[in-house]
């Protein structure tokens, strides 16, 4: 049986199993109470979880920018997070990396009976999605998750969690029949927010603002738009157009702090006219 330190020095030409074993061994060494890294030894699930979320977002960022060279490294960072949590779980006696891999392998096989079982592949992607949700519902029932909204992770980005909550509710008929009714609700919530600005306190204003955001997510769902992806795209557009403002101001020997809203707004419109998206 090779020692962890033997695995760590495997050549990069090793196969997938070698390299994955190498990563597991590296993490085991880093967490060794006697010889490991002091920082890594001090970490726990709570302190590592934010890094896990951050790494997932960095993967999404690399994909959006089509930065394929960066994506390889970002996926490696994300894989490290999985191994990190599995190592800590193993130390606590919960489970180990083998259990993690077996769990996902079994899940993927059971959720694809049209590939690994006797079911026919002759059905649309939409039908396969419906079947996937039925299998997931059966799995939740097996976990004694009785509520329709049980199991929607609290740690998801708020827009994504809102979308998942609404999809779950819609499956049992709790949904507006048409997009027009969602838009009417947006108008209603916007009016309530406007009234709250002058009649209610900060907590109530924040609540009304949240209600408006929630309905906006619902509109995206009715239009077939992922709100997280749409807002991410708009963030990118805003960044590029503001960069245009800064670039044009530099030509004038100025910075945004030296400008005013009228000038910057004119440069924003110039960016739009030039097709900056």
TrEMBL record:
The keyword Hydrolase applies. GO terms for molecular function: nucleoside triphosphate diphosphatase activity. Signal peptide: none annotated. Keywords: Hydrolase. Coiled coil: none annotated. Its EC number is 3.6.1.9. Residues 43-116 form the NTP pyrophosphohydrolase MazG-like domain. Transmembrane segments: none annotated. NCBIfam families: mazG, PRK09562.1. This is Nucleoside triphosphate pyrophosphohydrolase. It comes from Sedimentimonas flavescens. The gene is mazG.
């Amino acid at each position: 049986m090779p020692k962890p330190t033997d695995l760590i020095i495997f050549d990069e030409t090793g196969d997938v199993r070698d390299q994955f074993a190498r990563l597991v061994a590296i993490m085991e060494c880093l967490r060794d109470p006697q010889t490991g890294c002091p920082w890594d030894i001090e970490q726990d699930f709570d302190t590592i979880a934010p890094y896990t979320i951050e790494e997932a977002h960095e993967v999404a960022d690399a994909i959006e920018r089509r930065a394929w060279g960066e994506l390889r490294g970002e996926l490696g960072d994300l894989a490290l997070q999985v191994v990190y949590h599995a190592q800590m779980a193993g130390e606590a006696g919960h489970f180990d990396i083998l259990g993690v891999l077996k769990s996902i392998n079994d899940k993927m096989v059971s959720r694809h009976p049209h590939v690994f079982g006797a079911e026919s592949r002759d059905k649309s992607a939409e039908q396969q999605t419906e079947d996937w949700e039925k299998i997931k519902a059966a799995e939740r029932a097996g976990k004694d998750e009785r509520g329709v909204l049980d199991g929607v992770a609290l740690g998801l980005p708020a827009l994504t969690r809102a979308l998942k909550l609404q999809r779950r509710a819609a499956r049992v008929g709790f949904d507006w029949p048409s997009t027009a009714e969602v838009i009417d609700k947006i108008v209603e919530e916007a009016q309530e927010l406007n009234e709250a600005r002058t009649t209610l306190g900060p907590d109530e204003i924040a609540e009304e603002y949240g209600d408006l955001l929630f309905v906006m997510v619902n509109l995206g769902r009715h239009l077939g738009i992922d709100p997280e992806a749409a807002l991410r795209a708009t963030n990118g557009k805003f960044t590029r157009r503001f960069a245009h403002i800064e670039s044009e101001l530099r030509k004038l020997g100025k910075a945004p702090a030296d400008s005013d809203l009228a000038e910057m707004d004119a440069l924003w419109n110039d960016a739009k006219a030039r097709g900056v998206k």
